[in-house]
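Pasting as-is:
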Amino acid sequence: MSERDGNHATGTGQEPAHDCGDEHDGVHGGGHGDGHGRKRGGVHGTERGDGQGRERGDERGEEHRDEPGDERGHEGGARLSSEDRRRHRRLAAWRACERVLTRPAMDQRLGERLAALATDAGAVYDLEERTDLYGDGVVAELERRVAALLGFPAAAFFPTGTMAQQVALRCWAGRTGERTVALHPLAHPEVHEGDALTAVSGLRTVHATNGPRLPTAEEVQDLAEPFGTLMLELPLRDAGFVLPTWDELVAVVEAARERDAVVHFDGARLWECASHFGRPLAEIAGLADSVYVSFYKSLNGLSGAALAGPRELVEEARAWRHRYGGQVFQQYPAALSALAGLERKLPRLPAYVAHARMVAAELAAGLAASGTPWFRVHPEPPHTHQFQVWLPYTPEVLNEAAVRQAEETKVALFRVWTSPLPAPEGLAFTEVTVTEPALEWTAEDVRAAAGEFVRYVERVERDRRNEKEEARTAG
């Protein structure tokens, strides 16, 4: 069926009876599909950010606003909301920190990003060349490099991963004659794209499993309904950046092909999977018929994505890209930053993954020594350079503790905490990302920061109890 040229957790600490990482119906307390493409409830807090009822979107409400200042906004002098002020406060604290586990590009000022791009661009592309027009020049060079890295005949640049993936699945539906896509209920199109596969492309989804992991070969074989494409998100971000073993992945792909289905990888974070699988990128990507990759996540690009696959599929995808409004006049800033990411960030990812394993282990040790009533580091060890930490407190308490630690000690261990939906009251998780700044942290640094964070949590809880008592007495 393939059209490809020539190829086709365990808990830590004192576990509660209901372990959030176990393979039970529902994932981390979130809603899930029923095996027939129908979703039930919210999934993993995707409709609420920071415990304040704000929609997080794909990147979990990471801070992206301007420098903190007075309480007036930038448009028409409108006053900032209380949530805006909290965001400004967190961003100011993170920027002032001397020790962090990661410094996301979204934390940088506009001038800093422009200066970094100007510095890096000349090292990855000849700046004497003319600028790109509708996808030629530096954009075409980026496409060539991505296709070669992933071992495919061709690749097409897209302004967003959402567009790239929708186009890929739409194209495969036309080629297979089957508009049903099998994917996980926590996969990006199900959780973060507003039902676009159905609303825009008329596709239908089914789920082979509701567990917090990718499906097994047996589950794919036993799926009651026919499907034309199996989409696998590597890693499955909303389940904790989890990956199967290499043998499990091979078996799942073979099971899909036995059912005359093609296989598409959502590889938004494929770049950091090589360490877990112990295989080069081209061999991993080579299992699938097509692969989408992102440039702004692990590679720190400004924006953009690529779809790699058979030449005929990619050419069809270019036509649909135009119809979807993705034929952008000039994209050289995004393309240059993506090339810089491939040149400078990609080679560093194995070191981040290795260090993340140490960070996760020492976080667990520090939390255990702190006497916190329960916690979970998931998965342990991490499969990539990102993982989750769960604690039995509200997001409001944990976010206040995190920002106080950053402000007072200049150490930022955690960023934004949120609650899964639905979930018991008083349970929250955060995503930990280990990049270049984390390499300076020793095991003792991590353990000490974890213990100190718990002390801030206890202080925040004590302050809140005192405030409530004072308010009750005054009332």
